[in-house]
Amino acid sequence: MTDFATPVPPEIEQPRAPLAETTEMFLHNHAAVAGLIVLVLVVLAAIFGPSLYGVDPYEMVWAPFTPPGSEGYLLGTDYLGRDLLAGILAGARVSLTIGMAAAIMSVFIGITIGAVAGFFRGWVEEVLMRVTEFFQVLPTLLFSMVIVSLFGASLPVITVAIGLVSWTAVARITRAEFMRIRELEYVMAARASGAGNFKLIFRVVLPNALPPIIVQAALMVGTAILFEAGLSFLGLTDPNVVSWGQIIGSNRPYILDANYTVTLPGLAIFVTVLAISLVGDGLNDALNPRLRAR
Amino acid sequence: MMFTILQKVAYSGLLLLAVIVLNFFLLHAAPGDVADTIAQSMGGADAETMERIRADYGLDLPLWQQLLEYVTGVLHGDLGYSFFFNVPVTELLLERLPATLLLVITAQLLALTVGVLLGVISARRPNGLASHFVTLLALFGYSAPVFWTGIMLLIVFSLMVPIFPVAGMSDATLTGGWWAHAVDVAHHLVLPAITLASIFLALYSRLCRASMLEVLGSDYIRTAKAKGLSEGQVVVKHALKNALSPVVTLAGLQFSAVVSGAVLVETVFSWPGLGTLALQSIIARDTPTILGILFFSSLVVVVVNLITDMVLRLIDPRIRTGVA
Amino acid sequence: MPPDPILEVKGLRVELSTRSGTVPVLDDLSFSIDAGETLAFVGESGCGKSMTALAVMGLVPHPIGRIASGSIRLAGEDLTRVPEKRMRAVRGNDVSMIFQEPMTALNPVYTAGEQIAESLRRHQDMGRRAAWEHAIEMLAAVGIPDPRGRASAYPHQMSGGQRQRVMIAMALACRPKVLIADEPTTALDVTVQAQIFELLKDLRRETGTALILITHDMGVVAEMAERMIVMYAGRKVEDGMVTDVIAEPKHPYTRGLISCVPHLAEVLTEERPDLTEVPGVVPPLTQFGRDMCLFSSRCPLADDKCWEERPPERRFGAGHVAACWHAEEVS
User: Fold this and answer.
1) In total, how many domains does chain B have?
2) CA-CA distance, C331 to C326, in Å (whole number)?
3) Is residue B86 part of a domain?
4) What was the ipTM of the complex prediction?
5) Which of A131, A142, A208 is CA-nearest to residue A176?
6) Can you give the pTM of this predicted structure?
7) CATH code, domain with B308
8) B141 in a domain, yes or no?
9) In terms of residue numbers, what domain contains B294?
10) Is B70 in the same domain as B204?
11) Which residue from A27, A238, C21, C93 has the highest number of Cβ atoms inside 10 Å of its Cβ?
């Protein structure tokens, strides 16, 4: 009987640091990088813009409805003769702050509920998932409107009103990840070595469940900005604080005279949220191990 | 099968009950006495009215008894009295409900049909023009604030090129038969429906594309091709029916978001539905009305979810016969 | 003088475009099959067996794959030259196919009866009722108990064996001239496998359909087929009557495959104490089409010539063909 040749083992690719690989994947996604650049610019404008530009967004500086470019006002003035550029810069602060704060809150609630439900299973999960479904049935904007109308239109109330209704997607994703991960060997091993539930949830399972949650959290910021814009468009915001949605809402009756007072702040929202969603998509591709394997 | 449907109905009932309880606690959690909260819409009230409110809501009873009365009241269709509009809340809402239903259902169906159509077209050519269009549309639909989209459409199609009316649901000066009125309402409906559909259209077309791509790669599609069926039959009869389930499921889940979006769209186009009413009642601090709207819209969402469930059963025999 | 073969494939070359260029996944393949005959295609996965089936069905995945040259004549008509509309009329009617995975090859949202009846309506000009009745007859013919009841069942309500029977009923509904069965039993239990093969044998006897059986299992070949073709890396390496090939393989790859099956190997080398597998893997697609014997990397007989020149097909006795420079040394 003859012998068959021994096959040569295929070359094994050296594993690399996951963070480096994720960063590289992200940087290869041109749309995501563009989104990130825009986002950084928006954040810088929100932080330094108002003091650099130095025009009070609340004060009448020129005749109402001065078109963009004329009289040295780059974006013109609104129906009260306030500088639109100053308003958009000041609004960026409010929109981004509330967007971030509400997103952090909803991610926090979502992770907690999803993690507990996915980790403990049983009746705990049953109850928490029913609560989640309940919040999915409530029309979120209406619910926030009710909260704002009952507790007053201050920025903290608005933030809470948004965060309180936006966590369901994060909770669902977290729960699904937890249900998957808790059955894996290393969790079993940690459990066998006597780790408590708290440690298991936050030190063992959560870090491994993070990638899809991070993506969702990034997208949440965009959703929260849109949400805040919607509320302030309706006038349900602190009347003494300028924000993008509020500029649009208050200038809306005058679109016949000057539509740029509505178009431009809307564009600011659109571009910001677009940048966030491009970054989110890029993160998704970069963090998705299935895609990376290709 | 009958059993699971009954279960669903019972469960939906429980969800609504939870909304009623939430409403009750919201009313009580607001700063100040319930009577104060309600009287706000009148800018305060005389002692007699305050007494009447206190009696209506049974404010001298223990909290659990108040809750019980509130729940039984709502279950009997009593959502309280609007001192601002001076009518019972239920009456007010029933009057405004059809306009909102017309808007949300039209928008949802529009988003679904166009979304599925775009999804199917782009799935057949993943690198084609339609596919890139769906990607762009998805980005736009996610990123553009819906009220801004509405205003932009208004500026272009009502002010610059006046094809569509600026506001409202019908032309009060119109004479003619019911047909003329129907056409008039449809004419007013075009822009609001497109605006509201724009958010969800993107979502549905993207999911439909992904779902179609997955289905088109499956073994039973190869079987269908091996039977000698035409491409159209393969795509529509064999692929689409399978690809539709996740889209319909998502559409059901999104319905409460459609209702939320309708609040903004109604405001932009002065559409006389629950959304504009919600804003009016908030400005007027008319708490019973705004809580009633929250309940009514939850009711609409729950009913639509039940209908979605039935549709899913029609599409997918695996759900119908109880196998996941 | 034997009758003209029902299906005759000549010089078939199917190319697939990959990232590293165009590669021939079928390279100069010729074979023929007569009515009522069973021809087995054998080889590891990735050898081009399934691609052969798809080429005959006119289902080469578009646009990454294409038939570059050669002909596929079904009863004289060259299927590589007919328009798609004609091909659709042939598919499922004159040539039909049973796939590997009965669990996923049936559409989950239609009943078994509907999926069979659909073919009949499409090709046999039957009305709804007639097609449905015929579908029930087909279910009875493939041995499904209570065919009338099962016709209204959905795939998820059936066992794997039943689903494969439905697939067979679907494929045979229009009495095709050629039936291609691509690993029809790999996903099924051993006992069910035997039943399905019995069924295929019976049906072939009754209908006179030519059967192309694709498998990697030499045991199945010995049991089912009259003739066999061994494929390796897109090329035919051996072709002949099953009895001849098993008794006296002329290609080292065939020999390796045979020795994987204990009771076949005993006939071959009685003194052989151990089971010999064929170590190594099929070469990567990028190597396909090179002017060399693609089996060289795994062949104990390989010498410089094997690495430098593709061996031609050579005849050994009646209808026994092999492509190996060292054919004489194999057995």
Assistant:
1) 2
2) 10
3) no
4) 0.86
5) A208
6) 0.82
7) 1.10.3720.10
8) yes
9) 95-321
10) no
11) C93
Residues B112 and B69 in one domain: no
Q: Do C279 and A2 touch (CB under 8 A)?
A: no
Count CB neighbours of B89 within 10 A.
26
Strand partners for A267 = none
Return d(Cα B275, Cα B293) in angstroms, integer: 8
Q: Looking at the structure, tell me whether residues B74 and B99 fall in a common domain.
A: no
Side by side, the strands of the sheet bearing C7-18 are C21-33, C7-18, C65-74, C77-78
* Together in a domain, B74 and B207: no
B261 in contact with A at a CB cutoff of 8 Å? yes
| Alpha carbon distance A72, A33 (integer Å) | 33
What is the Cα gyration radius of chain A?
24
CB contact under 8 A, A262 and B290: no
CB B81 within 8 A of CB B40: no
Closest to A222 measured CA to CA, from A34, A25, A39, A90: A39
Spatial distance between the Cα atoms of B172 and B22, rounded to a whole number of angstroms: 39
Q: What is the pLDDT of residues C25-35, one digit of tens each?
A: 888 888 889 88
Q: What is the pLDDT of residues C104-148, one digit of tens each?
A: 888 888 999 999 999 888 888 888 898 999 899 888 888 888 889
pLDDT tens string, chain B, 324 residues long: the values are: 566 778 888 888 888 888 888 888 887 777 766 677 777 666 666 777 777 777 776 677 777 777 888 888 888 877 777 777 778 888 889 989 999 999 999 999 999 999 999 888 888 877 778 788 888 888 888 889 999 999 999 888 888 888 878 777 777 777 777 887 788 888 888 899 999 999 898 889 888 988 888 888 888 898 888 888 888 888 888 889 888 888 998 888 888 889 989 999 999 998 898 989 988 888 887 888 888 898 888 988 899 988 988 888 888 887 776 544
Q: Which residue of C91, C97, C154 is in closest CB contact with B317? A: C154
* Domain membership flag for residue B138: yes
Which domains, ranges and CATH numbers included, belong to chain A? 35-63+70-292 (1.10.3720.10)
Based on the domain organization, do B120 and B45 belong to the same domain? no
Minimal Cα–Cα distance from C38 to chain A, Å? 32
Nearest to B323 among C87, C110, C156 (CB): C156
Clarify whether residues B240 and B270 are in a common domain.
yes
Which neighbouring-strand residues pair with C98? Answer: C181
Interface check for C159 against chain B (CB to CB < 8 A): the answer is: no
